[in-house]
Specification:
By secondary structure, the protein is α/β, with parallel strands linked by helices. It has 7 helices and 11 strands.
Length: 193
């Protein structure tokens, strides 16, 4: 599955964006893999998850993790967020109970606040396409390797066609067909640089 794929890919010195970090399982794994010369940037909108994430980061004394309390989308702003039945099920929804900050990766990168990523893990309950649209320049310019969890069919379809247009090759990690898969790695076909 994804964890094995992730561990096989990510090495010392890498920059990893964890988008939809939840309580930080992947952020912490990445922090270990990239080591002190690497960097992990975790994006998570839910205060409850952020608290856990901060706790885990400080308990482990990780100095290579930056936390953004925000949901990643295709524009900067704010949105209502529905917490859903469990911590991992939250998603942006008009009738949501809390307000969350939205950020687009391209504008964060343009502001000079972040190093460009080598890897991005995206698990955002159906908002994958918005994440990618808001990172179109980053993807074109830096060609990061992407670990994706796709949720809704329509988002899945848009996400795949966006990546194919960008010249990415899709590799399935859960053994299903491309139409059915939920976990995949997208790699640039052109080599970087």
């Amino acid at each position: 599955g994804k964890r094995v794929a992730f561990e096989g890919e990510v090495g010392p010195g890498a920059v990893v964006y964890d988008i939809g970090a939840n309580v930080g399982y992947f952020s912490l794994l990445a922090a270990v893999l990239v080591g002190k010369n690497g960097q992990v940037v975790a994006f998570e909108p839910l205060p409850r998850n952020i608290d856990y994430l901060k706790k885990h980061v400080s308990l482990n004394k990780f100095e290579n993790v930056t936390i953004f309390e925000a949901a990643v989308s295709d524009h900067n702003g704010e949105a209502a967020f529905d917490l859903g039945p469990s911590t991992a099920m939250g998603h942006i929804a008009e009738k949501g109970s809390i307000k969350v900050r939205l950020v687009a990766l391209d504008s964060l990168l343009a502001s000079g606040d972040l190093k460009p990523p080598d890897y991005m893990k995206i698990d955002v309950e159906g908002a994958e396409y918005e994440v990618l649209r808001g990172a179109a320049r980053l993807i074109k310019e830096y060609q990061p390797i992407l670990f994706l969890d796709t949720h809704q069919r329509e988002a899945h379809h848009n996400t795949l066609s966006f990546l194919e247009e960008q010249g990415y090759q899709l590799e399935i990690i859960d053994g299903k067909s491309l139409a059915e898969t939920r976990e995949l790695i997208a790699r640039p076909t052109k080599t970087r640089g």
